[in-house]
Amino acid sequence: MTHPDLSAVVVNHRSAAHAVRCVASLREAMAGEGLRGEVVLVDCGSGGDELGALAAAPADVRVALAENRGYSGGINAGLARATGHRLVLSNADVIFRPGSLRPLLDAVAHESVGAAAPLLFWDGADQIRLPPGYPPDFWTDAAQVLGPRLPGGRRRFAAFARRAIALWRDGGAVRHLTGAVLAVRRAVLDRVGRFDERFPFEYEETEWEDRVRAAGFSLHVVAASRARHLWARSAAAGEGVGQRRARSRSLYRARRYGRTGRALLEWLEAARPPHKAAPQARLEAPAVARRAGASVAISPNASLLPFAAARLDRDFCLPAELADGLPAGPLYLTTFREDDGRPIETRVWVKDR
To answer: Are 46 and 14 in contact (CB under 8 A)?
Structure first.
């Protein structure tokens, strides 16, 4: 049996327009890079109208699940139909750039590499770089919960900024990959297993990557591979997202930190007061003026981590299409020095609705 150069598995739930664009971008990338590939498109219980819209996607294999088994269940269903030894696993809200696939496949060709991910951008102009993973541990989670109340925030911010800039520029090994796009060899999946479907929304790739690293494989960001991730778009289409996310988070914390660690984090979350920005720190619009040698970090978290970032070689304003897709609440914009990651100033834009 002749296997394709790669099998791409795309999982959709009520985001057909994005899924059609994702599959089309995969087709264009395959053709442009001379790859013989197949696309497996999985729909997780979206319903009849959605399935009709998905007919426009140029997929080779279509899998229509009767119920929403989550991203993990969709990936597992797609893997069962994929025939390639090298695989690209993708959210529906991703657009692959030309030349994005071969660097990923080259990275996972190394026996020591368990999975690889591209450099992801948030905007259509590829100016806003999304965080290259954010490894979870108890103190990292506590820092996100406590935000500016936990000492050492400037030091943590600068360390993350320096590491992120290096990965955006050169790529490299990391402890955690963002799961929007993952390239992997089938042999790795055979070794460590597939995604755990007990995680209904998020944390499924985090738990799987824990198993990959425990098996002795490394995880890599590949800076030569680029894609756009329409963050927060496909997730917003689902119902009960908050409850499913909370179940996944609780399960992961119990496994990683034990029941006591999970209980402590949940107590901190319940007890924390809302963060209120000083009046002089409020922005009327999500915009920052040009500043030589600096970038702006963009995060919905009061801890400021993790963050997306854009260089301030020109005036910056978050594109309206991205701002419109955000949930109501604060968005923190921190100007920082590119040479050492040190934060200069943090201001807050609050989306009312």
So the answer is: yes
